[in-house]
Amino acid sequence: MPVEVGGGLFGRPTVVNNVETLMCVPHVINRGAAWFAGIGTPDCPGPKVYSVSGHVNRPGIYELPMGTTLRDLIYKHAGGVQRNQKVKAVSPGALASPLLSGDELDVHLDVFSARPHSELGAGGIIVYGEEVDIVPLVLRASTFFANESCGKCVPCREGTRWIADALQRIVDGKGRQRDIDIINDVAGNMERKTLCMLGSFAAWPVQSALRKFRPDFERYLGHAPPRKQLPVLAAE
Ligand code: SF4
Question: What secondary structure does DSSP assign to 174-214, as a single string?
Answer without folding.
Answer: ---HHHHHHHHHHHHHHTT-SSSTHHHHHHHHHHHHHHH-H
